[in-house]
Amino acid sequence: MADGYRAIVKNRLPSIPVQTRFTTSPINRRSLQALATAILLATPLHAANISWSGGEGDFNETSKWTGGVLPGGGDTAIVANGGIVWLTDVRTVGALNVSEGNFGITPGQMLTCNGALSLGQQSGGSGTFELDNGQFFSNGPMTIGGTGGSGSFKFYNGFINRVGAGSVVVGEGNGSIGEYVQSSGFMNCMVPWKIGSGAGATGEFDFNGHAAANSHDWFIVGADGASGTFKLSGSGSFNKLPTMPGTHVAIGRGNGSSATVLQSGGYFINMSTDTYLGESGNATATWTLTGSSSIAVFSTLFLGYADSASATFELNGGTLTASHILKGESTGATSFVFNGGTLTPRANDLDLLAGIDTVRVEDGGLFIDTTPQINSGFTEHEVGFTVDLLDGGGGLTKRGVGSLTCAGTCYYTGATVVEGGTLYIDDELVASDVTVQEGGAIAGAGTLGGSVTAAGTIAPGHGVGTLTVEDDAVVSGTLAIELTATSGDLLAVAGDLKVEGATLRIELPDGPPLTQPYVIATYGTRSGGGFASIEGGDGYAIDYAYQGNKIAVTPSASPYAGWASNYEWANAGDELPEADPDGDGFANALEFFLDGDPLVSGQPAGKPTGRISGDRFIFTFERSAGASSVEPVIEYGSELDFPFTAADGEDGVVIATEASPGGEVWTVSFPLPPGGKLFARLKVEF
């Protein structure tokens, strides 16, 4: 045992010779520990570089390491001659350098690396690290492909925790190639994470399968002249967390950099920090989102943040969720391509998509769903675009509750479909036919260059305003019109207008009734019949041919106005309902109601009368046929202040009506109060 101990100590400290005393006495465990302690106290320790001798084998094969010593917590384990090393138990090393060869952790095992991990970090070298259902704790820099070499890190399952100093760099330096592949397991990275760093370097992060990762610090793809590629597929989730203040996601940083994100599945989530697509310098960056299961979630997504960086985002499938999408201050070109997939907002913003140089709608179309996400704090979203939507052959589909406002010119030629909520066109929809499904609405103060077919709602104006249709319009749902005291909504149709079977919903202004016609629609031609129903327009009529080719809401002539028009009034104001030009005590309203003559003094034919019958008071009057739409008010009480209003069946009151040659006789029976005194009167209000 003494000889074995001496060999280990000597080889771990090769630069410092150690004199060992031999004894013929038995050495027990306590004396061995005392001897080891004495040697360690007398000898300063430092890390050793211990190399694998070659071939394939178990980390624990002492004979395959330099000097027959297994690397420990202060040593650098080196695989530089094409060897293959498998870790089959739990180990700690000071550093691990696989410049030419392979190092693997077998299922269920764990490696702690207190210093740097370097893979393929030499010119022409090729180093690989494999973790299969084990654990790896890295406390120092991780370089996967550096100094002109190639490195590959393959993570199949298990757990990786990256803390401490330095960064994780996949491909660093001129001619270096780095590859990080994670198909399952969980990576927790507390330090900057770079995919490609330095001029001439190439880095690739392949994130697939059921993988999961948290990035707490910077996450950068393509930095300082490198080419970086980030691939997301499968069903995993990559999360950028706001743990480190002032950090964000940068896709393309610095002069000469190029960065590509290819997302065909899984989740990319950065809800708390910004994402810069084309951050700085003259970097070029592209994010392509495809696949029905792909989801990318951003807080603010910048395209072209600074300098002359350029950026393109292609939404070809899946779901893109963002609070804001906008161009930064870069002079470089930026573009957003909609070719399938769904855009969902995370916040209310009428500049949701703003400042982008080119926004094009390809054959796959633009789908936007304004339904609020769970726990978003919104009952519905109000979002909008201020950019022009260029034509690439596709169209726009609006889904979900809430509203989308297009304040730029829409040049796309595909169909516009409103499945839910409201689509406002406040500029021009140049050449797209519009279909509004039940539950949807088309609105705004702009121009629709194509036809409109609406089983849902057409609501001209954004507020009160005019919506112009340059082709035909068929409304089978609802035409919603808002009127004010001085103006109103207008649907202006250059082609044929058909409203047969639709509902006209009128929102009238507060205050007195309208006194003049309001034009609510114009048309080139009109086919079919009128509206099936009218909501909110009591007392008004619809003229479908007002001034020839207009639909107007006109005040209906009231029964009183028609009655008053039969008389020649001597003085201005004599025709008013409250006037009494003949001075007989019956105002014009009562004369009209009781079939009297307002210009001849005397009681009207249907004047009220009263009599006592037993213990009841009988009040009678006759309503004229011309006033059949006017409901009378009968007030009563034991004093002349008339505190009560008669209602049939209440407080012993009985009201009966009977047709008569002149109209209708009303008989109101009241129970007499104690003392036998009761007063009643007739009031007419309209």
Automatic annotation (TrEMBL):
Q: Does the keyword Signal apply?
A: yes
Concerning InterPro entries, the annotation shows:
Autotrns_rpt, Pectin_lyase_fold/virulence
User: Key word Signal present in the record?
Assistant: yes
Keyword field: Signal
Tell me the protein's name: ESPR domain-containing protein
